């Protein structure tokens, strides 16, 4: 037990410790403030150098009020969605340094006459949840690094000029609800890895050049409500596993090259409202009470 004579020494030690802790807390807060300031400055610089908002180029301090820009309370940009009637991004798409937007959650740029390939920086946006680049002139292959966007809920690349195979890494997007790749020039098989997307409800792959059979594993995607793979070069039988998709409301496999009979398991789809298997090589008879309960 400390004596009375030791009390001044203990008080001095405690005072010094408290003082040092205050310095540490203050310096930590200062570093955080500097980091936030640097982040906001880099976002403003990226907007300025992109040339997208040329009429606002000297007012980056007011960027949160720009059309198509949404910020959080700290002033960091969380959404970039300029309406195409307000500005056309066009060939300036690649001029944006997307790596500066660490808090970006929504990138919405349909109908902006975008050209070229997808900028690689988009694949490292840690907070991105909604990515819509539909109805543009983008081309080339989809980068496999898109599979790193683990928070992504919606991915829409429809109506572009993408080619070659669909990267199986998209199967890593476990939070994905909507996947729209229709109206492109994708080829090769549908990756079975996509069947790991347990939360997916909408799957659109129509109007491509996809080949091979529908993967049997599609029956594992229990939340699917809409599937459209029409106007491709698919072949083989209709998977019986489709009968497991109890939530399915629309199944469109029109004008591909599937063959064989309609599996009786389709009759398990009691929520089905739209079934289109036309312009295929369907054989046998339809047992109405089994297929349409």
TrEMBL record:
Taxonomically, the superkingdom here is Eukaryota
Q: Which GO terms describe its molecular function?
A: ATP binding; protein serine/threonine kinase activity
Q: Where is the Disease resistance R13L4/SHOC-2-like LRR domain?
A: 96-204
Name the chemical reaction catalysed here: L-threonyl-[protein] + ATP = O-phospho-L-threonyl-[protein] + ADP + H(+); L-seryl-[protein] + ATP = O-phospho-L-seryl-[protein] + ADP + H(+)
Q: Which InterPro entries match?
A: Leu-rich_rpt_typical-subtyp, LRR_dom_sf, LRR_R13L4/SHOC2-like, Ser_Thr_Kinases_DiverseReg
Task: Establish whether keyword Transmembrane is in the entry.
Answer: yes
Protein name, UniProt field: non-specific serine/threonine protein kinase
The EC category is transferase
Q: Which locations, inside or outside the cell, does it occupy?
A: Cell membrane; Secreted, Cell wall
Q: State the organism named in the record.
A: Populus alba (White poplar)
Q: What is its EC number?
A: 2.7.11.1
| Family, as annotated | Belongs to the polygalacturonase-inhibiting protein family.
Keywords, A to Z, come to:
ATP-binding, Cell membrane, Cell wall, Kinase, Leucine-rich repeat, Membrane, Nucleotide-binding, Repeat, Secreted, Serine/threonine-protein kinase, Signal, Transferase, Transmembrane
| A single GO cellular-component term on record | plasma membrane
* SMART domains for this protein: LRR_TYP (SM00369)
Against Pfam families, the record matches this protein to: LRR_14 (PF23598)
């Amino acid at each position: 037990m400390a004596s009375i004579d030791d009390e001044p020494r203990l008080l001095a030690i405690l005072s010094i410790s408290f003082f040092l802790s205050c310095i540490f807390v203050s310096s930590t807060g200062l570093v955080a403030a500097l980091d936030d300031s640097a982040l906001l400055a880099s976002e403003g610089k990226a907007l300025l150098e992109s040339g997208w908002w040329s009429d606002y180029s000297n007012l980056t301090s007011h960027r949160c009020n720009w059309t198509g820009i949404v910020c959080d309370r700290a002033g960091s940009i969380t959404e970039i969605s300029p309406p195409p009637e307000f500005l056309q991004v066009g060939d300036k798409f690649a001029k944006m340094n997307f790596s500066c937007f660490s808090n970006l959650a929504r990138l919405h740029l349909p109908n902006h006459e975008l050209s070229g390939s997808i900028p690689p920086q988009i694949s490292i946006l840690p907070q991105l949840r909604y990515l819509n680049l539909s109805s543009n002139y983008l081309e080339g292959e989809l980068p496999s690094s898109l599979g790193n966007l683990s928070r992504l809920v919606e991915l829409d690349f429809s109506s572009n000029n993408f080619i070659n195979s669909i990267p199986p890494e998209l199967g890593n997007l476990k939070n994905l609800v909507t996947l729209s790749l229709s109206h492109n020039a994708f080829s090769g098989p549908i990756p079975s890895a996509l069947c790991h997307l347990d939360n997916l409800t909408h799957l659109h792959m129509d109007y491509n050049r996809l080949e091979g059979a529908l993967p049997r594993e599609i029956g594992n995607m229990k939340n699917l409500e809409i599937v459209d793979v029409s106007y491709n070069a698919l072949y083989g039988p209709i998977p019986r596993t489709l009968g497991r998709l109890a939530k399915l409301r629309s199944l469109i496999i029109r004008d591909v090259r599937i063959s064989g009979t309609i599996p009786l398991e389709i009759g398990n789809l009691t929520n089905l409202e739209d079934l289109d298997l036309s312009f295929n090589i369907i054989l046998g008879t339809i047992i109405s009470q089994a297929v349409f309960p």
